[in-house]
Specification:
The complex is a heterodimer of chains A (292) and B (175). Chain A has 292 residues and is α+β, with helices and mostly antiparallel strands. Chain A is 40% helix and 25% strand. The longest helix of chain A has 39 residues. Helix content of chain B is 78%, strand content 0%. The chains are: A alpha+beta (292), B mainly alpha (175).
Chain lengths: 292, 175
């Protein structure tokens, strides 16, 4: 009768001690990981990429029905104001037809000028379109995970575009997944310029929805509504990609609203502006290029 | 004879699966939390469902939710969400520890008292997360968004607790 009692008296504190030791060990492990992460140890990126690769099929399976449901809801909403939308599109179509004419004239002029000056044509670029399967937002990071990776020809530094404009660049690449760092992320610094004046600046993300224009060239006076495009400096992004419009110009600094709606990106087009890749892209459809 | 062995083996497997349920649910929550939702500002305001799970199971079934489980789920969350690695592992481990340390306080208490305790814990966890985020990533939190997220996390706890309670009664009532 006495033995189990003594045993218990020793065993209980021993177990508590073991638990405390395990807890402290895990806590130390977490702190260690944070320090290694801060030091950007390469194996941490590899671990992230491996987990993303493994999870992409599962996340894709969850994301698809959610996007379908969202699209159904959108379609229903669109049905309600189909009349007003129709009128708006008719107006816009008239305007765009005018712009199409302008673009054709410019293209013809451009071609003839190139021929007279013997300019080499710009390097062609390639792209991959991929579904967004995970959206990590919050106080620390603004990035999305896409269901395409190295096997689809995606590499670090490639440009991620949405139909509306620049979304970000590829930060991490796995075999079948890639993490795209959005314009709004704290670590995003994009060389840009004001479209009208060609004044240069850097667009700095700060984890809010409105990134900031910093290092504006002296004398630049950005106005509300000015369009911001990439400047092509630094070589990460090609020049002229649409980025956003200036929406704030006050004590909070100059802030830009990106053309991309970050809450509704189902697909991203990852563009390789270097050489090699999969699909050529032509800015004007071939039948339009021939003219009327 | 063979049938008895098979039944015994299946019972063992069934028991093991049921006992793994709290941690499995936590992993599912992590994956669901990164599904892109077409809700403006959702990413910023997303309530801490994982914290709710850690709290619920540590209070009600600490035997099925060990410290390493909180650590592993936090680490998984860091890897999936792209947060600084170790951040959520650290915060959830501390949350787990503080619940276990106060375990006697929760025994047989009214729901609103447990809810109040969750609110205090969530506030602490949020503050710690933001502080570490500031130190590690230099992310300056938007106080309004942080407060709204905390409010949402606390407000939704009863819903999550009801859901977990259902799972517990359905699958874990036998122990």
């Amino acid at each position: 009768m006495k033995r189990p009692g003594t045993l218990m008296k020793i065993a209980a504190p021993m177990r508590l001690l073991a638990q405390r030791a395990a807890f402290l060990g895990l806590l130390g492990g977490a702190v260690g990981l944070m320090i290694l992460g801060k030091a950007e140890a390469p194996f941490i990126e590899r671990a992230r990429v491996a987990v993303a690769d493994a999870l992409v099929p599962v996340l894709d399976g969850i994301a698809r029905p959610v996007q379908t449901a969202a699209n159904v809801a959108d379609n229903f909403r669109a049905l309600l104001d189909v009349h007003a939308e129709n009128a708006r599109l008719r107006d816009q179509n008239a305007q765009l037809l005018h712009w199409q004419q302008v673009a054709r004239n410019l293209e013809a002029e451009n071609r003839s000028l190139r021929e007279t000056t013997n300019t080499t044509t710009e390097a062609s670029f390639t792209y991959v379109t991929a579904r967004v399967v995970a959206d990590a937002g919050g106080a620390f990071v603004r990035s999305v995970l896409i269901a395409a990776g190295a096997r689809d020809g995606i590499a670090k530094g490639h440009t991620a575009m949405s139909p509306a404009g620049l979304a970000g660049r590829v930060g991490e690449v796995g075999e079948r997944s890639a993490r795209v760092l959005l314009l709004t992320d704290l670590n995003s610094h994009v060389p840009v310029m004001i479209e009208g004046t060609r004044d240069r600046a850097i667009l700095d993300g700060d984890n809010t929805d409105l990134p900031r224009l910093v290092f504006l060239s002296s004398g630049a006076r950005p106005q509300l509504g000015d369009r911001i495009v990439t400047s092509g400096h630094g070589g990460v992004f090609p020049p002229g990609l649409p980025v956003g419009v200036v929406v704030q110009n006050g004590e909070q600094g100059v802030r830009v609203k990106p053309f991309v709606d970050f809450h509704r990106i189902d697909y991203l087009r990852v563009v390789d502006y270097g050489t090699g890749g999969t699909l050529p892209i032509s800015p004007v459809p071939p039948q339009a290029r021939r003219g009327r | 004879m063979a049938a008895a062995v098979i039944v015994a083996a299946l019972t063992q497997i069934d028991r093991a699966l049921k006992r793994a349920l709290p941690l499995t649910l936590g992993a599912v929550i992590v994956m669901l939390s990164v599904v892109p939702l077409p809700i403006p500002e959702y990413a910023v305001l997303a309530p801490g469902f994982l914290l709710m799970a850690v709290f619920y199971w540590t209070v009600h079934r600490p035997d099925l939710f060990p410290a390493w489980g909180a650590f592993a789920l936090g680490l998984f969350d860091d890897l999936v969400s792209g947060a600084p690695l170790g951040l959520n592992a650290f915060v959830l481990l501390l949350a787990h520890f503080s619940i276990v340390a106060q375990h006697k306080v929760f025994r047989g208490k009214a729901f609103w008292l447990i809810w109040a305790a969750f609110a205090i814990l969530a506030a602490g966890a949020h503050a710690l997360t933001l502080l570490i985020g500031l130190l590690l990533a230099g992310a300056i939190p938007d106080p309004l968004a942080a407060a709204a997220q905390l409010g949402l996390t606390v407000a939704l706890y009863p819903v999550a607790a009801a859901l977990f309670g259902r799972v517990q009664r359905l699958f874990l009532s036998g122990g």
